Amino acid sequence: MPISEAAKKRAPALPPPRVTYHRLRKSIHFACFLGFLALPFFDLMRFDIPRQRFYFAGYELWINEFAIVFFALMFFMFLIIGSSIAYGRVYCGYMCPQMIFSEASITFENRLRRWMSKRFFDWPAARRNVAVRALFLAALAPVSVFLAFVFISYFVAPRDLLARLLALDLHTAGGIAGAAVTIVTFLDFTLVRQRFCTTVCPYGYLQGILGDNNTLLVHYRDEGHQCIECKKCVRVCHMGIDIRDSPFQIECVHCGECIDACVDVLGRMGKKGLIHYTWGEHGGEAGEREPWLRRLGLRDAKRMIVLLLLAAYGCGLFVALGMRRAVLVQISPERASLYRLEGSRVYNKFRFTIANRGHARSAVIFSLEQLPAATLAISQNPVAVEAGQTAQGEFEISRPLASGTQEVVHFQIAASPVGGGPADSFPMTFLSPEQRRPQ
Ligand code: SF4
Ligand code: SF4
After folding, report:
1. Residue 314, CA atoms < 13 Å, CB-side half-sphere
2. Are 112 and 134 in contact (CB under 8 A)?
3. Which of 181, 366, 429, 437 has the CB geometry, 3.0–4.6 Å to 148, for a possible disulfide?
């Protein structure tokens, strides 16, 4: 067949890109899925509601350490805000679990459809569709149970949750929550999928407030009128939009699938794609040659300040975590009666609480400082506390009552961990009845 003049003039096809955004996204999706599984099972981040514990980066924080828990949650919030200012909705397209599982369910259903079409090509289309849907729902049911299990593991210890699941527990809060999340997950990935992003999720709306002229966008630029109206960029968009209409559409999750599509179509014609990641509507394309800080998205003073604040916040958080004591001792005087007299001695009563927030059994020994001739009466000294447990009790301190004894004596109670470690010292007062000096 003779080759037309137009075909002869056509520029040679460009080599396909080594890494497409689609492939990059799928790799990140897989890594995020592994992270989603690992966070609760390795106590990297988990809120154990029944035990009132917050697990973070291997630390077990108690609810009475609310300041650190609050600090950690605020750090995550600032991290999301900071990344949204610089990188827009890249989190939605690359890391959001809703997006990851919605896309996975659509891909699975499409593959199932293709397989059925090949395997049962002689069936009527309606019967094939019903079979595909039935198979998809049958497969989604156990997957929903598994995903709900992982999700509830963020709030209930996985081992405890597994026992409830195997016992088909529908009586406790954990069991009911698990069943409810399973149903919601099933309906979500059957009916809702990415509609969630444009209807329920507030993050897209928040992004409209956080973005500025330097925020990463997916932008269509066609000054040379190169677009051939193939609409492949529209067909591949799982959010159902045309990026050529505007880079600021609330539905756009900045996934970059339309970039790959345009590069593929125009690349075969020897042309560059018309859709790019750009820094703001009028900024340059991401990846262009420029100083590395700007390439990383740190393009103005605002972003540098946000980064410095985040770094300071993160350092503060890890210093606070590093400084926390595994064993927390609290001592308070029992002042229902100021003192007790027995024979020639006067007694003061004190209460103690020892919280062992570490992972190993611990013991604390009490001793007295700056209180001469005093005796400590306690049932056990040292007091042993199992890991994750709290011990409470009381003890008495007695002194001989002699003429000239002061009514109020300031002294210290020391609480030292057995086996070494810094001791706590608690300033206290010892009260005695008024004694008249001999004339
Ligand atoms: S894929 Fe590229 S060429 Fe095709 S319609 Fe979209 S922007 Fe135009
Ligand atoms: S317009 Fe492009 S970047 Fe935006 S959601 Fe659709 S495919 Fe993804």
Report:
1. 12
2. no
3. 181
Cα separation, 14 vs 314, whole angstroms = 45
Q: Which residues of 18-28 are buried (b: 16+ CB within 10 A; e: fewer)?
A: eebbbeebeee
pLDDT of amino acid 70: 84
Q: Are 25 and 256 in contact (CB under 8 A)?
A: yes
What's the CA-to-centroid distance between 251 and ligand 2, angstroms? Answer: 8
SS3 221: coil
Closest CA to 40 of 142, 147, 184: 147
Q: Closest-lying ligand to the alpha carbon of 256?
A: 2
Q: How far apart are CA 45 and CA 73, in angstroms?
A: 10
**333-389 per-position pLDDT tens digit:** 998 888 888 888 999 999 999 998 888 899 999 999 988 889 999 988 999 999 888
pLDDT tens sequence across 113-172? 999 999 999 999 999 999 999 999 999 999 999 999 999 999 999 988 898 888 888 888
Q: Is the pLDDT of residue 110 over 90?
A: yes
Q: Which residue's structure tokens are 């926390």?
A: 324
pLDDT value at position 3? 47
* CATH number for the domain running over 327-431: 2.60.40.10
* Secondary structure (DSSP) of 350-419: EEEEEEE-SSS-EEEEEEEES-TT-EEE-SSSSEEE-TT-EEEEEEEEEEE--TT--SEEEEEEEEEETT
Quick one: tokens of 3?
């080759």
Q: How is 104-127 classified by DSSP, letter by letter?
A: HHHHHHHHHHHHHHHHTTTS-HHH
The pLDDT tens digits for 239-292 are 999 999 999 998 999 999 999 999 999 999 999 999 999 999 988 898 888 888
Ligand with an atom nearest the CA of residue 218: 2
User: 95: Cβ below 6 Å to ligand 1?
Assistant: no
Token pair 């609760």 in the structure block, residue = 40
Rounded to whole angstroms, the Cα distance separating 255 from 91 reads 9
Nearest CA residue ID for atom 8, ligand 2: 255
- How many CB atoms are located within 10 Å of the residue 383 CB? 21
Domain regions of the chain by residue span: 327-431
Q: What is the pLDDT of residue 4?
A: 52
